[in-house]
Amino acid sequence: MPDSTHRTAQIFTRLHSRYPLPVTMLDWRNPWELLVATVLAAQCTDARVNMVTPEFFRRWPGPAELSRAPVAEVQKVVHSTGFFRQKAKNLIASAKRVVEENGGRVPETMADLLTLPGVARKTANIVLSNALGKHEGIAVDTHVRRLSFRLGLTTSTNPTIIERDMMQLFPRDQWGDINHLLVLHGRDTCPARKPRCPDCILTDLCPKHGLSRPLTSDS
Fold first, then answer.
1. pTM here?
2. Which residue positions in the chain have pLDDT lower than 50?
């Protein structure tokens, strides 16, 4: 297997060739909409969130409108995304904070984003890299967590440690893309159960950590 520097570069190159437009599958038009959609996407599929957000933004187009929304009404709209009570509470609280402390604009630094209720590093990284063009870290979701371990890019399953390890391996200008590339590959070829190793463009680069046996096309 190639040395780690060459292997990491090959992983990025091959994935980018397979998925030349690595972008989030969430629908959004501005930083606020991406923040809301990402919060709603926790423990929920992007497809479901994309079904909910049109009505959400029709009723509450921005943080000013949402800051005045009755929590019960927000709960009804986001109910199908799961954990709807906490998500509604956090989104309204975040909207109030954005309006009162940032003039209605989404904060543009990691430190400031992390002050918003319900916003952790994953959400902050997604907003920063996709909506604001700033790379302060790598968003570690369930796909990145799984694939980074299988590919031997980290020996940890802790998101904080995974992010640190990945930031050391990939150049800063690739931090936003590597999240999307691993998410796309995880959905397409390397799911949690029955990854299709024989069909994988990374199979010769992958130590397959955590897999108990070699996988075939029929397994």
1. 0.91
2. 1, 214-219
